[in-house]
Amino acid sequence: MSEAQSSDVVPRSTALVIACWLLCATLLACAVIATIGTAEVEQVFSSFGADVPALAMFFFKGRYLWWLLPVAALALALLVTRKKLHHKGAQTKITIGFVVLFLASMLLVGAAVFAMYLPILSLGKPVG
């Protein structure tokens, strides 16, 4: 390997490996909770007989889509873990992918929490 080629290769980031596997485990737990918990919450609110807001209904009906997040995180974690050396450009792309997946996950979790509270907030409104 020439000098220019060897300087383009760097060892994998241990912090990135740990962060990817932690994100994978966390998203797996979120998917399990979303699948089981959302079904129970849907039953509770449907028993009230009130209209469920559209955002809450979206999360109720799309609860199995949460499984796409841990699958994406697992793919990213395996991509980071499988090689001891990465090209600088590849490691940068993997880091950007991790940040995007992390931010998207946090946004979805926040939206899900908000959506689960919407039916409670709508129960307090006067019927008119």
Question: Which descriptors would you attach to this protein?
Answer:
mainly alpha, two-stranded antiparallel sheet
Can you describe this structure?
This protein has a two-stranded antiparallel sheet with strand order 1-2. It has one domain. The termini are far apart. It has helices at residues 3-7, 14-48, 54-61, 68-81, 88-123; strands spanning 9-11, 85-87. The protein is mostly helical and 128 residues long. Helix 3 (54-61) packs across helix 5 (88-123) and helix 4 packs antiparallel against helix 5.
| Share of helical residues | over 70%
Main sheet attributes: strand count, strand direction, barrel closure: 2 strands, antiparallel
Terminus-to-terminus distance: 77 Å
Strand content: under 5%
Number of domains: 1
Radius of gyration, in Å, reads 21 Å
Shape: elongated
Reading side by side through the largest sheet, how are the strands ordered?
1-2
Strand count:
2
Number of helical runs? 5
Structural class: mainly alpha
How confident overall, as mean pLDDT?
86
- Could you give the order of the helices and strands? HEHHHEH
Low-confidence stretches: none
Provide a short characterization of the protein structure.
This protein has 128 residues and is mainly alpha-helical.
